[in-house]
Amino acid sequence: MSNSVPSLITAVKCKLFADMDESVLKDILSAAKVRRIAPKTNLTEKGGRPDYMFLLQAGRVRSYILTESGSEVVLLWIVPGDIIGLVSLLANPPNYMANGTTVTESEFLVWDHITIRRLAKTYPQLTENGFRLALNYLGHFFKRHASVMTKSAESRLAHALLQLATDAGEVRQSGVAIDITNEQLGSLSDISPFTASRLLSKWERDGMLSKQRGRVTLLAPESLMMAEG
Predict the structure, then answer these.
(1) N or C: which end of the chain has fewer CB within 10 A?
(2) Which helix (H) or strand (E) holds 44?
(3) Residue 50 belongs to what domain range?
(4) Residue 212, SS3 per DSSP
(5) Which of 147, 173, 200 is the last residue of a domain?
(6) SS3 199
(7) Which long-range CB contacts under 8 A does 68-75 form with residues at least 24 apart?
(8) Facing residues of 34 across strands?
(9) DSSP secondary structure code for residue 184 in this structure
(10) Cβ distance 97 to 2 under 8 Å?
(11) Tell me: the pLDDT tens digits for 39-60?
């Protein structure tokens, strides 16, 4: 592939490819196709057929479900090195369990179901790593559920901001910029958009961050660490 070097760098960070030799990684990556996808494009839809597995190389994707009332619940903020459509590793996969939509212009490595199944048979470590990755996601949601029961709204929002800053933030002279809306932040923190907006406004007055439409810039991450508790 023309961009095999950046693909290899991204793959090394991907937990799906943990403990794999470079020669194996190159074989797996050479079977993928590169796709560049515009912002606000649906990659997966809940209930849809899992025909593809995606490895995000550049950009941002949000994974979410819609409630019966049409409200969006953000499950994950997907960053380079993350996998979308992990169920495609299975011979008879269940339908996609969540929606995946690009937040920014994004670049992916994409394997169709037949190809990734062939690779999984050739390299059983893929399936084992996929199971470990699924357990990792499960553990993440255990912790998130526990935090709803034990942490304050302020603590959960501070934790979400700090995690996003680490995983998806862009370091600038002014601070660490995160492209996300108040509503998405609230959903990711399991708090209402009103509560998220109120807390962000308070932290802005305190000089901890600044807000623009669709963006939060952390000015004093150490202060948020105190709010996280």
Answers:
(1) C
(2) strand 42-44
(3) 4-147
(4) strand
(5) 147
(6) helix
(7) 72/183, 72/184, 72/187, 73/187, 74/184, 74/187, 74/188, 75/141
(8) 109
(9) H
(10) no
(11) 999 999 999 999 999 999 999 9
Q: Which residues pair with 111 in a beta bridge?
A: 53
Q: Domain with 167 in it: what CATH number?
A: 1.10.10.10
Q: Which amino acid is at 93?
A: P
Distance CA 103, CA 205 (A): 28
CA 87 to CA 92: how far, in whole Å?
9
pLDDT above 70 coverage of the chain, percent: 94
For the whole model, what pTM was predicted?
A: 0.85
The bridge status of strand 99-102 relative to strand 42-44 is antiparallel
The DSSP secondary-structure symbol of 18 reads: T
Which H or E run includes 25? helix 22-30
Note whether 104 and 188 are same-domain residues: no
Residue 134, token pair as written in the block: 């699924």
- Average pLDDT for 23-37: 93
- In this structure, the answer to whether residues 24 and 132 fall within a common structural domain is yes
pLDDT tens column, 65-82: 998 888 889 999 999 999
Are 126 and 213 in a shared domain? no
Distance from the Cα of residue 72 to its chain's centroid: 16
Between CA 13 and CA 1 the distance in angstroms is 19
Q: Give yes or no: residues 142 and 173 share one domain.
A: no
Please, which residues have CB within 8 angstroms of residue 1's CB and are 6 or more apart in sequence?
Answer: 7, 29, 30, 32, 34
